[in-house]
Design a protein that fits this description.
43% strand, 4-stranded antiparallel β-sheet, 131 residues, alpha+beta, 2 domains
């Protein structure tokens, strides 16, 4: 995704809930915390913080096929019980955040990679991130 001034942007989608089933993927308290954090992110402007350009709520509906359900008293010619396919439409609600693209990844990813590789982070790299 690119902005009007051709800056590369990223879209982060955070699932808030599954609409039709009423099955929230996060608690109401956590959902409010996420929304508050999003509003705070909008106000932050600093060279070491990824800029947020916009946020919005979006939804999508997907049709999922459930495993077959046996049909009572019906069998195929080999005597195996027949099954019917059932589909279910699942509506998902997302918080979408349009933000500056961090081409070098985030600090957590860098730390985890070096931790996994059991390598110290080069001091010059640390200073380049901090300056």
């Amino acid at each position: 995704m690119k902005s009007k001034d051709k800056q590369l942007l990223a879209l982060k989608k955070i699932i808030l809930c599954l609409g039709n089933s009423g099955n929230p993927t996060m608690t109401e308290q956590k959902r409010l915390r996420v929304m508050r954090e999003t509003q705070i992110m909008e106000t932050l402007h600093h060279p070491h913080i990824v800029s947020m350009h916009a946020h919005f709520i979006d939804s999508e509906v997907k049709t999922e096929i459930k495993k077959g359900v046996e049909i009572d008293d019906e069998k195929n010619q080999n005597g195996v019980a027949l099954q019917s396919e059932q589909t279910e439409e699942i509506e998902r609600w997302y918080l979408c955040i349009v933000m500056e693209h961090a081409s070098r990844g985030d600090l957590l990813h860098l730390i985890e990679k070096h931790k996994q590789d059991k390598e110290p982070i080069n001091e010059d790299l640390i200073w380049s991130v901090c300056n």
